[in-house]
Specification:
alpha+beta; extended; 4-stranded antiparallel beta sheet
């Protein structure tokens, strides 16, 4: 499966706001979601692994499997706000061993 994404942003001098959209592989999404999200969400009823996985498989709408014909990816979109930042490092100052309070070892 190829990865495809589309971006649509409104650009201003301060920010870029818009959408990132594309398809997410159902198996990869399920694996990453289950391994990266804290287990207590599943244990205390905030997430149902089996139900969510079944829904992902049922609603998948792209990249059909060549053998089964079942779709393997699902449409997705994320709203994004990007802000350009600059990291300014202070100038490094030369400090002698006497000023730093070291013994020179």
């Amino acid at each position: 499966m190829g990865v495809s994404s589309q971006f649509q942003f409104k650009l201003t001098p301060q920010v870029a706001q818009g959408l990132m959209a594309g398809y997410v592989d159902v198996e990869q999404f399920n694996h990453r979601f289950r391994t990266n999200w804290a287990m207590h969400h599943q244990n205390y009823g905030q997430s149902s692994s089996a139900s969510e996985y079944a829904a992902l498989k049922r609603l998948a709408d792209a990249y059909p499997d060549s053998e089964t014909g079942a779709n393997t990816a699902i449409s997705s979109a994320v709203e994004m706000t990007l802000t350009q930042v600059y990291i300014v490092h202070p100038e490094e100052q030369e400090v002698s061993s006497q000023e730093a309070g070291t013994t020179g070892f």
